[in-house]
Write a structure and sequence with these properties.
- It is a single chain.
- The chain has twelve helices and eight strands.
- It is of the alpha/beta class.
- Helix 10 links the parallel strand 5 and strand 6.
- It starts with a helix and ends with a helix.
Length: 301
């Protein structure tokens, strides 16, 4: 199964919810007027895209319909897809890992799928011929280290770990040393799930970042925030809070296959101007793909 087919399957619940509502509007209204656009805007809001982003999309759509005198429903759908795609095409989605070594710091709240995402990203990089070291800097849970070790082994990556409860920044320091000594290409740092409103956890994250910045001063750095697709609207404020503590370079979307809230992705990108770099489309190690805005929009409308 190709990526687009996996994506369509994964976003099936979102598509069913979204398309049914949109088709109802198109079948109910005989002409494209303000009432039609109001109904369409309400559907976007109810589909977790968010009020501000939904308003922006409808205002742009209104101008386009007026300017190009669009009346055909399929043309309006096409224009709607284009508006969403433009939002999602916010900036360069590629990973910038041109130095040797480079580093990827992976952050997020509890239970979003950070460890699984690290395994999948490590696997992708290893397939590209990169030598990978993984730092198990979630030292709060022994199970987290064990899970990460399983994924690292599957991806052919080296793992650096310490006993439970040690200072996570010291694990990162050891991992940086190992990365340099083994002439590895990329260091991927796992971190404990942290609520963005817990100051001591955010202080710990800052400490980890300071170690990375000091010991890998000239290295390319990616900071990836992992977001659970089922979080919906709450993810927007989540991203904003993490942005205050870390220089986030990209988002990783997970668990979209079990939710009808995939539309929230559009609001997340629009309100934070951070690109989605990866999207998880299944449970297997190969089920992590580079995000494609065009495919995503086509999969939900």
């Amino acid at each position: 199964m190709g990526f687009f087919d996996k994506l369509k399957n994964g976003l099936n619940k979102t598509k069913e919810s979204f398309n049914d509502k949109i088709n109802t509007v198109f079948s109910t209204f005989r002409k494209v007027d303000e009432e039609f656009l109001d109904e369409l805007e309400e559907i976007l809001i109810l589909s977790d895209i968010g009020i501000e982003t939904s308003t922006k999309i409808i205002n742009s759509l209104r101008e386009k319909i007026k300017k190009e005198k669009i009346e055909d429903t399929e043309e309006i759908k096409k224009a709607l897809r284009e508006e969403m795609k433009q939002i999602l095409d916010v900036t360069d989605i590629s990973l910038h890992l041109n130095t040797k070594p480079s580093v990827i710091l992976v952050i997020g709240v509890n239970g979003v799928g950070k460890t699984t995402s690290i395994g999948k990203i490590a696997n992708r990089l290893a397939k590209d011929g990169k030598k990978i070291v993984v730092a198990a800097a979630d030292t709060f849970r022994a199970a987290a280290v064990e899970q990460l070790e399983i994924w690292a082994n599957r991806a052919g990556a080296t793992i650096v770990k310490r006993e439970e409860g040690v200072d996570p920044a010291s694990v990162v320091y050891d991992a940086i040393k190992q990365t340099k000594e083994s002439n590895a290409d990329v260091l991927i740092v796992d971190t404990a799930g942290r609520l963005h409103n817990k100051k001591y956890l955010m202080d710990e994250l800052n400490k980890i970042q300071k170690v990375i910045n000091k010991e890998m001063l000239d290295a390319d750095k990616e900071v990836l925030l992992v977001i659970d697709g089922a979080t919906g609207q709450n993810a927007i404020s989540q991203v904003k809070a993490f942005k205050e503590e870390a220089d986030i370079t990209g988002l990783v979307l997970t668990k979209l296959d079990g939710t009808a809230k995939g539309g929230a992705v559009i609001g997340i990108v629009e309100e934070n101007k951070i690109p989605i770099k990866f999207i998880g489309v299944g449970e297997q190690i190969d089920d992590m793909e580079i995000f494609n805005a065009d495919d995503f929009v086509k999969a939900i409308i």
